[in-house]
Each structure stands twice: as structure tokens, then as C-alpha cells.
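May I ask you for just one protein sequence along with its C-alpha cells in two labelled lines?

_____
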Amino acid sequence: MKWSADGRVTHPIYLFRHGETVWNAERRAQGRLDSPLTAAGRAQARAMGEVLSVELRQAGYEASEVAVRASPLGRVRETLTIAAAAAGLDYGEHSFDDRLREMSWGEWDGLIGAEIEGRWPGAMAARRLDHWRYQPPSGESYAMVAERARPVLDDVATIAAERPVAVFAHGGIGRVLRGLFLRASDSEIVTMDQPQDAFYRLHRGAAARIGTQADS
């Protein structure tokens, strides 16, 4: 796996996952479907915005300098609304990019693990054996997600040559974006964490986890 645009990243890229949702709490696959943030998720979004504000100030940036790119799905929009208010970020409809949508579980979207296993016996075990390439029925594999993540990461890197960027997305595609930036292997990417109470600063070829009080 190759990705070389990080040499242009003069300014940091801040990578966020949305806060906890109702379906996250139920351990239900969301994919391209959606559910609202829980009270904990809203608190996580606010805390991440507050910590980003501190991070920007310490790095010598004004919030108005930060470009925003985000998934258009509702749980990310809700997270962004809360975090942006806390951090002072400016964004509009031009900030939303369909390529940042979460990886699709296809026919598994909306189901919990036991329901998937009941309808497709052995499928979850098969996915664990080839996590990178396994494609759920009518869904996406991590390998497929990487194909759409590469160009969006390249676009974000181009922006980061001029100014910092805040990217608000999801667990699966967030793993892939971070892994591509780090030139991580396929097996490393699928085991990366997917925090909802912390975010990552991607800069100079490294990823630094920035936690909130809830993460401590």
C-alpha cells in the first residue's frame, strides 16, 4: 500500500470520528444507515471541539484558518455542529464530501452480530479470516473503501499544504485514512482503534492521539 502525498502536509490534519450513537450503544452496524447521537455522544463531540480549540491555540492557529471536510451522514453532521461550535470552526455545505461516508455493510446495515450470524451463518468468522478483503452482501470491503479514501486524502493533503484541516468521518473509513497516511499494512489498519472521545493529529508522517477528559 503506497501513499506519498504526506510530503506536502505542511499543516496538521485533525481526524475525528463522530460521537457515540444509539446504534453504537446497541452494537448495531450502521454503515450507510444512521442513528442520532446519545447524550454521551453529544458530550464527546463537545469535548473534542473544546480540546481542538486548545490544540489550535497552542499551535498558533486561529479557528478561522481551519478548513473542514466531513461525511454528509447525519451522525457526523450532528457531531460537527457541536464540535464546531465549541472550537469556533467555520463550515458550510461545501465542506461535506460523499467519499467520507462510512463503509457500507450492505445487507448487514442496521443489524447486530447475532442477527447477522443467524441469517448468514459463518459469515462473521469468514470476515475475521480476511478482514481487509471480505465484502458483506451488497456492501464494501476495506480494500474497496481504500480506493475511495486515497483520492480524498490526496485532496485533504493538498489543502494541508496551505492551512490546517479538520476531517470529521467514521470509524471504518477513519482507520483507512489514518493507515494510508502512515503507510500502514492492511493488517495494521483493520486493528487500529476507532475512538469517539479522542481524535488524531496527522502531521509529518506521524499520528498523535489527542484525548479528551472522557478519554483519560
User: Anything to note?
Assistant: The CA atoms of residues 116 and 173 lie 21 Å apart. Strands lie at 13-17, 67-70, 165-169, 198-203, 206-211. The longest strand covers residues 198-203. The two ends are 33 Å apart (CA to CA).
